[in-house]
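We close this part of the discussion by returning to an individual protein. The amino acid sequence and the backbone structure tokens for this protein are reproduced below:
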Amino acid sequence: MAAALGAGAAPRAARGHRRPRARPARPHRLPTAGRPAAAAAPGDAWPSTPDRRALWLAAAKPPMYAVALAPVAVGGAAAAAATGAWAATTLLQAAAGAALVILWLNLANDAFDAGTGVDARGGKPESVVALTGGDPRPVHAASLVALAAGSWLLSRALGACAGRAPRALLAAAVALGYAYQSPPFRLSYRGLGEPLAFAAFGPLATPAFFLAAAAAAGAPTAVATPALAAASCVVGATTATILLSSHFHQAAGDAAAGKRSPVVRLGGARAAAALGAAILATHAGVLAAVAVGALPPACAPASLLAAPAGRKLAGRAAAEHGAPALVRTLKVDALAWHALMAVSMVVGLAWGV
């Protein structure tokens, strides 16, 4: 009731009763390894005490694997449009390999962040390192196993390709993923994660999967098309917005650890405006590409169906960027928009195949 009254005068105590003295607020403590905290730290956005199942679910990041599937699906659709056939087996192998590479990225990011203390300062109880006892070495080892398995599957998916271009493209994408988070580069700490995500998932990975699918469908010497180039940029742009959206709720912890994310550099309001501009530019780019004939006409109405999700994402960022507890789930909205835009590209490219 006192909270509902706000800053106004408190009502007098009833006759014969003494007004209870307010207890001083106890300081919040960061969670210890393997145990969720009783209350969130100032930079944390968990609104209440989560149980371990909730923390493990957050650590697993199931929706993030849409990021792995988008380049595979869009590249495969572009190959189907070019060859008239779907290379289902190759695309399934590529999807499994890409998912394992994303697992490597997630585990390695937690392991390396444990070394800098950014997760502890930011109050991140869902860190895999914290949930497994605080030692980053087993988590790092598991990440390397995931990378090795993913690389093997990707190599199998590229088996029918002629030349080295597809392998070089994927190797470059993985190298950018390493430079994003790993010493001595740690480019994410310099605010360069978004352009790296754009390049790795867009112009690098998507054409590689196009070439793999085209080769498996009987066109080992297929060349990139304007439609592939435009769709790859859509995949890259929407992937970068997921990364940008994930920074808002942990800006305080990032700043304390010296991580100069775009939200730390720009501030919440300007970063939210940049996110909204990126969403608008992506939709405008799709319509422009359709207008000049780079993308098939079906891509325009398909992408417009994703526009409400983009508007919701931009609106939430603008309204909630200063409230960590609210904006923590912003990346879920970014993933939804990303997935819808990827589906729009797949539908538009493969319409009639």
